[in-house]
Amino acid sequence: MTFFIIKCICVYLSGIGFGLIVNLPHRALNIAGINATIGWLVYYWIFSTWGGLGAPNFFGGLVIGILSVIIARWKKMPSILFDVPGLVPLVPGGQAYNSIKNFALGNYQVAFNYLSEVVWIAGSIALGFIVAELVNKIRQKIRRVQARN
């Protein structure tokens, strides 16, 4: 349990740290870290229960995308400010590093295995963001129709 709490704190700090690197406004740093933590918790929970690479990253990206839109409306800031730091814990940096390392060492089969994981994870995160945007557009359309009636 202690190790899990340490992971959560590190994910929160990674969201804040990346926000500082990309010069996020200071009033958005805390909530960007919370958004990253919530997205990672969804990823971790689905990875622990279902396993695999696609579903956990898809749902993590989906939650981060939906929360970013909600937070952006609440804080009256662009949603991209909360999207990017939220993605940091989900980015497949380790697999990308191992892929390049194995290409350099001549282990092409292992390198392509890692590369396929990178593509799968990145595609799942992107698809989660696309679905989050679709959910937002549908919600806006429903709100407009209800306002007319």
UniProtKB/TrEMBL annotation:
Protein name per its UniProtKB record: Threonine/Serine exporter ThrE domain-containing protein
Main location: membrane
UniProt-listed InterPro entries: ThrE_2, ThrE_Dicarb/AminoAcid_Exp
Keyword terms of this UniProt record: Cell inner membrane, Cell membrane, Membrane, Transmembrane, Transmembrane helix
Family: Belongs to the ThrE exporter (TC 2.A.79) family.
Alphabetized PANTHER family for the sequence: SUCCINATE TRANSPORTER SUBUNIT YJJB-RELATED, UPF0442 PROTEIN YJJB-RELATED
Subcellular location, record wording: Cell membrane
Membrane topology term: Multi-pass membrane protein
Record field: transmembrane: 5-22, 28-46, 58-74, 118-135
Chain ranges of the Threonine/Serine exporter ThrE domain: 8-135
